[in-house]
Write a structure and sequence with these properties.
The complex is a heterodimer of chains A (508) and B (359). Chain A has 508 residues and is of the alpha+beta class. In chain A, 46% of the residues lie in helices and 11% in strands. Chain B is globular and about 80 Å long. The chains are: A alpha+beta (508), B alpha/beta (359). Chains A and B meet through helix 11 and helix 15 of A and helix 1 of B.
Chain lengths: 508, 359
């Protein structure tokens, strides 16, 4: 670990030196333009022989229509006038006269047209003409729900904020923007509702974002990993969602959302472990059904993590525990197999992981075929060839199925990962090992925090009020308070009137 | 803390506790499911281990495999059995232990001791006494498709629920170690292609002193514990047979002490449905009363006879002594002296509530 720390330090130091070197050297406009011209998509020309204005832009990121319709005609009219007159004449609101070369460079690189007067070397008119390439808002793919809205975030940060603001039309919704990454200069927006969100949480996030020392931020998952409280934890610290409705809902609970430009996934936090097992669809169903589904998912997690290791532990150490009626079928299916239970389990678990990985990498149509054919063919053949037993095949398949019920993809990966330490300890020390591994992970979870807030809340520390929307989802009229975990200054969501439960007719 | 420290900390509790278990992979061991002890002579006895080999395949039937050896101690026998077995023998899944009647009459202290000391043996283990040699019962073919051991266990288990008092290793030990009660065990015998539970063996300390018939075992169960399912048949004065079904019964023992003399009384409440009375008008209230009094009479008569017999043998399987001990003025020496002559009254209260669906 110390090795990595020293590497990181050196990396940071190198970065700082580079920055300093750049600012020390005074850049001039003609030098900047000269450097830009090395790139083939950089255009630099004079409109006509007599015009004093030189036009520079990157044609790949500039909307040519804006240039043709609103800029060039006015340049023609304003021959031999100053930059200021040109700025007044052009009917585009987003124009500036800038004399800082670094600022000009940044504008140029983010899709602006730069106009300078030959020989002035000091200032330039910068006109915003960004060409926005974006795909339309489409259906959610990872967090699909049968009922409820079908909008998902897209790659454009402005479109994403638009989707959220549409759902929260209040001035209290604050968007704070920072730019991260020395190379990518990614726009990262932090969204929260003023007055409902604890300011301390916002400051924590902003501080951590500003401290990020990484040259490229491609996706929100980069941010998720970099700002997480504990880098060595396999558990995700922030919920990763592609649903604007979920974001709007958690914002109004007093949580914070991070939206990263170029990523169709927003991050929300602070979060708790149980939140990872609540699909947002739960809120679209009646509360009994949603609660049952949540319990099923929690059961699935335990089953998925423990079943294979319990099989290995019981068959290797604790034959006394097997019910009498299960003994004969179990021995019959195991007796032809040359491997001990642990090898058998590892072979099957790896097969399932291979199928999953191959299915995820292959194009959708081939992936499905591989999944079905591979699963059936390999499963049946493995049993017939005497490599694995039927009983274990059922257990492993069920466990894999159970791990896919987790609504947040990252958590599903974690669950599949922590199965393996359980398997190993089960082989080493039997049920004692399983218990041991379980308490190890439990103590890790107890210590874990998400943005400095307890991760296992509301179970530990016990928050009885918050239990209404954790393991169960009780009806809406009972959800009167925001979770204590987010430390919202306004804890009460609404005050229920008396006789809230009995619905009134118009006559009453 | 770095990863190495974490790992060290993880290992410490396990290494210190010394509880790292040793692996026993299920299909690499010889699971013994029944065990039998037979009498050879005053010093030695014969042990028989019944296990099954299960051939690979989904529909395969288990093959019965029996090992037996003679020796002075259980450990010695196990050693000899191990010598002829292909895989290590384990006893963690023993479900039934059979004592030959002759051995039981000479005392089973040795065998019981080795059973209760073995940590891998569960307390729900069934113990029975057999009329034949235990080896002949284990090494036999029955008309069942299960493994032999499973069949034997099923027969005994089913009977413990309905017809004979519930007893397993744990309950046996409770009676065995109690100073004021004596143990009893089910009695089994082989009949052709079947195994049959044929009564109860009554012990005095660790020695079998008496056996009682299957019918009396049922009376014993009524006096011994409450239960909900059963069937009781009785012959009425007119010669007709009638049976009580879906019987539920609850016994109550009361021990009194007057002027230093103990008396005991059993009060048994029996509820049931009168069924199958051929030529009887079961809707008639008088008939029902007749049935009730006949059943009461039958229970009292047989129970009194049985208890008398226990007193003569000076054994107390009905744990009347345990009840007496609850009294503050209990004196064990007095009790031991008086038990065989004391007065034990039996009262039965039979209630035939229904008489079938045509009522």
């Amino acid at each position: 670990m110390g090795f990595f720390k020293s590497k990181l330090k050196r990396f940071n130091r190198d970065n700082k030196q580079k920055k300093n070197g750049n600012t020390e050297h005074e850049l001039r406009i003609d030098e900047l333009l000269h450097r830009c011209k090395e790139s083939a998509d950089f255009v630099s020309y004079r409109y006509s022989e007599s015009s004093p204005f030189y036009i520079h832009y990157y044609q790949t990121i500039v909307d040519i229509n804006i240039l043709h319709q609103y800029v060039l005609p006015y340049i023609k009219e304003n021959e031999s006038k100053s930059l200021f007159d040109l700025q007044q004449a052009i009917p585009i609101d987003n124009t500036e006269i800038i004399d800082n070369v670094h600022e000009i460079r940044d504008k140029l690189l983010t899709g602006c047209v730069v106009i300078e007067v030959k020989g002035s070397l000091q200032e330039a008119l910068v006109i915003s003409a960004v060409s926005l390439e974006k795909r339309p808002v489409s259906m959610p793919e990872v967090e699909y729900s049968v009922v409820g809205p079908k909008e998902a975030f897209v790659e454009s940060i402005d479109a994403n904020i638009n989707l959220v603001r549409k759902r929260l039309p209040i001035p209290d919704l604050i968007v704070e923007e920072v730019k991260i990454g020395s190379l990518t200069k990614t726009r990262v927006a932090v969204l929260y509702i003023e007055g409902i969100t604890d300011k301390e949480n916002v400051n924590t996030i902003l501080q951590r974002l500003n401290e990020i020392q990484f040259d490229q931020i491609v996706d929100s998952s980069f941010i998720n990993q970099i700002i997480s409280d504990n880098h060595n934890s396999p558990f995700p610290h922030l919920i990763d969602t592609e649903r604007p409705d979920r974001v709007a809902s958690v914002l109004s609970e007093g949580k914070i959302t991070i939206i990263v430009d170029g990523s169709p996934h927003a991050l929300t936090g602070p979060t708790t472990l149980v939140e990872f097992f609540s699909a947002f669809e739960d809120y679209f169903l009646s509360w009994h059904i949603a609660s049952i589904f949540r319990l099923v998912r929690l059961f699935a997690v335990f089953f998925s993590v423990l079943s294979t290791s319990l099989y290995v532990a019981v068959l290797t150490y604790h034959y006394e525990m097997i019910p009498e009626n299960l003994l004969n079928p179990l021995i019959a299916s195991r007796s032809g197999i040359p491997f001990p239970p642990i090898l058998e389990a590892i072979i099957l678990e790896l097969t399932i992981e291979l199928l999953r990985e191959a299915g995820a990498r292959l194009p959708t149509k081939i992936g499905q075929t591989i999944g079905i054919v591979g699963g059936i063919v390999i499963g049946t053949a493995a049993v017939q060839a005497g490599l694995t037993s039927n009983v274990l095949l059922i257990i492993v398949a069920l466990a894999a199925l159970a791990s896919f019920t987790t609504p947040v993809y990252q958590m599903g990966n974690t669950i599949r990962l922590i199965r393996f330490p359980f398997l190993i300890t089960a082989q080493l020390w039997g049920l004692l090992g399983v218990t041991f591994c379980f308490s190890y992970i439990l103590s890790h979870l107890l210590k874990m925090t998400s943005l400095g807030r307890p991760y296992l809340a509301p179970v530990y520390p016990l928050r009885l009020d918050d239990l209404r929307d954790s393991l169960f989802r009780l009806p809406f009229f009972m959800q009167t308070k925001r979770p204590l975990q987010v430390r919202s200054p306004v804890r009460t969501r609404f005050r229920p009137k008396k006789h809230e439960k009995s619905k009134r007719d118009i006559e009453d | 803390m770095n990863v190495k420290n974490y790992l060290c900390c993880s290992l410490i509790p396990i290494l210190l506790a010394g509880c790292t278990p040793s692996p026993k992979v299920l299909e690499d061991i010889q699971l013994v499911q029944t065990f039998g002890y037979d009498y050879v002579n005053g010093e030695e006895f014969e042990g028989t281990a019944g296990s099954s080999n299960i051939p690979p395949g989904e529909q395969s039937l288990p093959v019965n495999e029996v090992f037996s050896a003679t020796g002075k101690t259980s450990k010695r026998i196990r050693q000899k059995i191990q010598a002829e077995a292909a895989r290590p023998i384990v006893v963690g899944r023993v479900g039934l232990v059979i004592f030959n009647q002759e051995l039981a009459e000479h005392g089973i202290e040795n065998q019981i001791d080795s059973l209760q000391r073995n940590p891998s043996i569960g307390r729900k283990l069934l113990l029975v006494v057999s009329k034949e040699k235990a080896k002949d019962i284990i090494d036999a073919n029955y008309s069942q498709s299960d493994s032999v051991s499973q069949y034997l266990i099923d027969v005994v288990e089913q009977n413990l629920e309905q017809t004979i008092p519930d007893v397993n290793l744990h309950r046996f030990l409770v009676h065995y170690y109690s100073k004021d009660a004596d143990p009893f065990l089910p009695l089994i015998e082989k009949q052709g292609k079947h195994l049959k539970v044929s009564g109860l063996g009554i012990f005095k300390d660790d020695k079998l002193v008496d056996t009682i018939s299957f019918g009396d075992a049922y009376i014993f169960k009524i006096l011994y514990e409450k239960f909900r399912r059963g069937q009781f048949e009785v012959e009425l004065s007119g010669g007709e047979d009638v049976s009580l079904e879906n019987l539920s019964s609850k016994p109550k023992i009361q021990v009194d002490k007057r002027n230093g003399k103990y008396t005991a009384a059993f009060k048994v409440k029996v509820n049931g449905r009168a069924m199958e009375g051929v030529d009887l008008d079961l809707t008639d209230k008088k008939t029902i009363e007749r049935i009730e009094s006949a059943v009461e009479k039958e229970i009292i008569e047989r129970a009194e006879k049985m208890v008398k017999r226990f007193q003569e043998l000076n054994t107390d399987p009905l744990r009347i002594g345990e009840k007496a001990r609850q009294r503050s003025d209990f004196n064990r020496k007095e009790w031991k002296e008086q038990y065989s002559q004391m007065e034990i009254k039996i009262e039965a209260d039979v209630n035939a509530v229904q008489s079938g669906i045509i009522e």
